[in-house]
Amino acid sequence: MLLADLLNKLKKVKRQSDGSYLAICPGHADKNPSLHLSQAEDRILLKCQAGCGTESVCQALGITLSDLFTEATKQASTLTGVPEKRIIATYDYED
């Protein structure tokens, strides 16, 4: 799923200065946007600032948790049974 597709399912979407978005959370009776959304390298990140769990937000949107991941990530984890691992940083320790 693309972030744009997910944003189309939400109300009162506002783009933030850092490129993330705030929207009305469908997981509870929200009057002020409290759902924070952003695009990571291989997934969509969402967090309800009012405390709704990610699963309940996904359920209210009619999607599954796996819909938050890109197709490449889903295929890699399906083929091997575990998500693809990446080296994020390395450190040299010296005595």
Task: Return the string of H and E elements.
Answer: HEEEEHH
What's the total helix number? 3
Helix-strand makeup class: alpha+beta
How much is the average pLDDT? 83
pLDDT < 50 stretches: none
Radius of gyration: 16 Å
The largest β sheet comes out as:
4 strands, antiparallel
Total strands: the figure is 4
Helix percentage: 25-40%
Strand content: 15-25%
Highlighted features:
single chain, 95 residues, alpha+beta, four-stranded antiparallel β-sheet
Explain how this protein is built:
- With 95 residues, this protein is an alpha+beta fold.
- It contains three helices and four strands.
- Strands 1-2-3-4 form a four-stranded antiparallel beta sheet, with no helix packed on it.
- The N and C termini lie far apart (47 Å).
Give the SSE layout.
Layout: H1 3-8, E1 14-15, E2 21-23, E3 35-39, E4 44-48, H2 54-61, H3 71-80
Antiparallel strand pairs: 1-2, 2-3, 3-4
What is this entry, summarized?
This protein has helices at residues 3-8, 54-61, 71-80, and strands at residues 14-15, 21-23, 35-39, 44-48.
